[in-house]
Specification:
Blueprint: E1 5-10, E2 13-14, H1 20-32, E3 44-49, E4 60-61, E5 76-79, H2 84-88, H3 95-106, E6 110-113, H4 118-123, E7 131-132, H5 139-145, E8 150-151, E9 157-159, E10 163-166, H6 171-184, H7 186-195, H8 223-231, H9 239-245, H10 250-261, H11 265-283, H12 288-294, H13 300-310, H14 315-321
Parallel strand pairs: 1-3, 1-5, 5-6, 6-10, 7-8
Antiparallel strand pairs: 2-4, 9-10
């Protein structure tokens, strides 16, 4: 087992309000802080500037020892983020960065992205035909702009051998610890996680962190019945019940709800029930059986089944991940 060298691509300037510093710090902490009692030598980390900082640009500037030329010869290349404009506005990723990433991959480097860094790997063509992920808030843009990428918005990270991608924020830490586990073994990764006071491996995927509530719709004709349904989720509701309350035929109700929310009535109900279950698990310590009853999912087994399928973790694991305030 070997640690090897890690080239971390850092922006020339990070805005004071940007989350980009978080992903950079995660990778720098994991791979740049020697742990001689766990593995010696540790990783050889080098910070590689993505370009010169503009004079007077507001934000934080990094003092780096090399530019994108530092990617050459690295065992692992990590792109923690791209500028917000590349994600939100569709601005192109820097051609210099794209070329440097392609060259590093062709030279045998393992390529890694954290959060929006996936847009850089995709721009370089390194995700074509591969399964990949990013923060769930950005996966739709990634899939739309790079249809040849198999975007999975349900996982914390994807390990596709020589190319790895992670979801946003702390999922980047999950992937970094996974890399340590691959390179230096489970014992080293577990001990490092303990020192960082984080789980060595989190169960489930990023689906557990997605807001399950359906966005408000301007379908005025449906709003009252949907509000009523949310207030009576503990009842055994059916499409006929909702259609009758909306003074529509079941077929008309189905069509209008599908148009307004993009989902079927049964899936909408299930989503609302799971959202209620999440809220109860986060805010109360009532038994899982009671959570199932109050959310309209019936039994604890039924709750567990749908929770595992839709959220990616068991109700118990979810409750431990989101403990009630003061507990």
């Amino acid at each position: 087992m070997s640690a090897g060298s890690v080239a971390l691509v850092v922006p020339a300037v990070i805005g004071l309000q940007s989350w980009d510093l978080y992903e950079v710090s995660i990778a720098a902490t994991v791979f740049g802080m020697p742990q001689p009692d766990l593995a010696d030598p540790w990783y050889d980390l080098r910070l590689c500037s993505a370009g010169p900082a503009e004079p007077g640009a507001p934000g934080l500037a990094f003092r780096t020892t090399c530019g994108l030329d530092g990617l050459a010869g690295a065992d692992t290349v990590i792109v923690p983020s791209v500028p917000d404009a590349c994600v939100e506005d569709g601005a192109p990723v820097s051609p210099d960065l794209v070329e440097a990433l392609r060259s590093a991959y062709e030279g045998g480097a393992r390529m890694v992205s954290l959060c929006s860094g996936a847009f850089a790997l995709a721009a370089a063509g390194l995700l074509d035909g591969r399964r990949a992920t990013a923060h769930w808030m950005h996966t739709a843009q990634l899939a739309e702009r790079h249809p040849q990428v198999q975007v999975d918005d349900s996982v914390l990270y994807v390990d596709d051998g020589d190319v790895l991608t992670s979801a946003g924020m702390t999922a980047g830490l999950d992937l970094c610890l996974h890399l340590v586990r691959r390179d230096l073994g489970a014992h080293v990764a577990n001990q490092l996680a303990r020192r960082m006071v984080v789980p060595a491996h989190r169960p489930g995927g990023q689906a557990q962190f997605v807001d399950l509530s359906v966005p408000e719709t301007d379908a005025d004709g449906l709003a009252p019945v949907l509000d009523w349904a949310r207030a009576h989720l503990d009842r055994p509701l059916t499409i006929d019940d909702l259609a009758r309350r909306a003074a529509m035929s079941p077929r008309t109700f189905y069509r209008q709800l599908r148009r307004a929310t993009g989902t079927t009535p049964l899936q909408w109900l299930l989503t609302q029930r799971l959202g209620r279950a999440q809220a109860l698990l986060e805010s109360t310590d009532i038994p899982v059986e009671k959570v199932a009853a109050l959310s309209g999912l019936g039994t604890a087994n039924n709750l567990r089944h749908h929770f595992l399928k839709q959220v990616g973790v068991s109700p118990g694991d979810y409750r431990r991940a989101f403990p009630r305030a003061g507990s």
